[in-house]
Write a structure and sequence with these properties.
14 strands
């Protein structure tokens, strides 16, 4: 979910595409083509960056035991499947897709600054050019937790020209 002064962005269901809604009326403004299965989305400088799962999901067969609270015992048994996702960039106002690229994306690591989009691919950090999706740089291998559970998220933080990553491996 992303909210601006005028628009709200969210998928209307599991595996649904991302849509933009008028923040006052709730009317649908646009739906972003090919964005079905969106798992993560950020808005940066008028561009929506998404991670979408186009395959089977770890959550396809999941049903909460108690619909009112989190089922922590169950989510500790669900792991990131490490299958490639589709990273996509869209012009937020026109809905035009700018680029798409398949890659593994460690959950919750997508982040952006004014020029680049960053993420961890399960082994290393990558920085992509926001306009083209081309690799701007990649790091040496960076450690992470062996299994990424659904109740844990690695951290990727950008401050000025520094990229910080905490993968939860305890080192």
């Amino acid at each position: 979910l992303i909210s601006t002064d005028n628009e709200v962005y969210l998928p209307l269901g599991f595996k649904a595409p991302l849509s933009a809604f008028n923040a006052v009326t709730g009317d649908t403004i646009r739906t972003y083509a090919e964005s079905d299965g969106v798992e993560e989305v950020i808005l940066n400088n008028g561009v929506l960056f998404m991670v979408a799962n186009k395959g089977a999901s770890e959550l396809d067969a999941y049903t909460p035991v108690n619909g009112r609270v989190g089922d922590q015992a169950m989510v500790r048994q669900l792991f990131w499947d490490e299958e490639p996702r589709v990273l996509m960039a869209y012009d937020a106002k026109s809905g035009q897709q700018l680029w798409a690229k398949r890659s593994k994306v460690t959950p919750l690591t997508m982040s952006a600054d004014k020029d680049k989009i960053y993420f961890h691919d399960g082994e290393q950090l990558l920085a992509l050019n926001q306009q083209t999706g081309d690799v701007a740089w990649q790091s040496e291998p960076v450690g992470r937790r062996r299994q990424v559970t659904f109740n844990f998220g690695p951290r990727l933080v950008i401050h000025e020209d520094v990229v910080l990553f905490a993968g939860g491996e305890g080192e």
